[in-house]
Amino acid sequence: MGSVTDKVEWEIFGNAALSASTAVKRSGDYSLRVNGLSSSVATRARSMHNIVSGGPYFSRIYLNIATLPSAQNTIFGQSFSSSGNTLRVYLKIDNTGVLRLFDEDGQISGTVTLSTNTWYRIEVKVDTSGVGGSHIVEARVNGATFASASNRSISTVDLDRWMVGGNLNSEAQTTGDWFFDDMAINDSTGSAQTGYPGEGKIVHMQPDAAGDSNGCLAGDYTSVNEVTPDDGTTICVLDAVNDILDVNVESSANAGIGASDTITLVQVGVREAAASDLAETWNARLKSASGGTVSSGTSEIDSTTTYKTNNGATRPGVNTLTSYTDQTTGVAWTPTGTNSLDNMQIGITATDADPDVNVSTLWALVEYVEIPTPISAPPTTAGLRFFGGLRFFGGLIFR
Fold first, then answer.
1. Residues of each domain in the chain carrying CATH 2.60.120.260
2. pTM greater than 0.85
3. Which CATH class for the 202-369 domain?
4. Where does residue 315 rank: exposed (0-12), middle (13-18), buried (19+ CB within 10 A)?
5. What's the pLDDT at 294?
6. What CA–CA distances, in Å, run from 371 to 19, 61, 374?
7. Per-residue pLDDT tens for 77-130?
8. What residue spans in the chain does CATH classification 2.60.120.200 cover?
9. CATH code of the region 11-199
């Protein structure tokens, strides 16, 4: 979303060392850059996510290091219920590129060495569902496990937040420059996405045309399509019960998705506020084509005039509508076709519009797995060439 303002996309602490980078990114428009650390000051972008139960949980970050820290530095961590920013499981990287996994009782055996200027997929598993002494902590890079233990005792078992940044354990360091992108977390609640997230790229598809419904008292799709939310500057005002705003979004190709890429999921993003400090209610909407079957997100209540991402104070930041399959066809989403990302509409319904629901921004978050373009057929004998008795064909020299 191109912002490091607190609670737009993350809970932000120490944001002087955080920025949205367009120069180094793995997918979409931005990555999150950590640069210019202050000694002993934790710089963190913390997920706006509350989770209960003991897991297992599987988190994924993509990391690209431009400049290594001067010594071991904590760059990723997970905190648990009632522990605030006290990290129970975390990753450290040192000045030689060695990555290590820790929990609150010490290092988990095993390391891996990372190079600079390279994107790595780093995933961490935490399972505290069993009794103490049987908790599992594990980490892997590009699908290969480098540290794992199944005999740990995490003192608090319910995952509350996970975070990325630098100096997360208040290290006294100022050196370092690294980037995060395409971050995800899976739980074990029986959805289509359990276990390690694996490979994936994440983009936001922005509104670019009117959809089936415009129930805005003021505004339309152009009021909710800014990449970095402008909150109250341009809004759609839904002022009556069951008012709907539907919008079309940009093409999958424009978002960087190939026609043969595999779609993992679609989520509808909403940033909104109540017109006054009373309770209004809304639902996110999604359909794969004009007039298609509509999926509705969980009903969300907001009772403040402060703009929020995805929902009110009950579960700040958690997407309220996730779709693993096209609700019209019942099969996996596709980039193109009659029912597809290219014909998709996203939206919002005001189920209680007293006070008005002020909608600042809508977007579709899409995770996809890139499928490489097939290599073209090799040249035929028609391309045979002769030079001074040498024959060149297919890169080989025949005498």
1. 202-369
2. yes
3. mainly beta
4. middle
5. 97
6. 30, 20, 9
7. 988 765 567 899 999 999 999 999 999 999 999 999 999 999 999 999 999 989
8. 11-199
9. 2.60.120.200
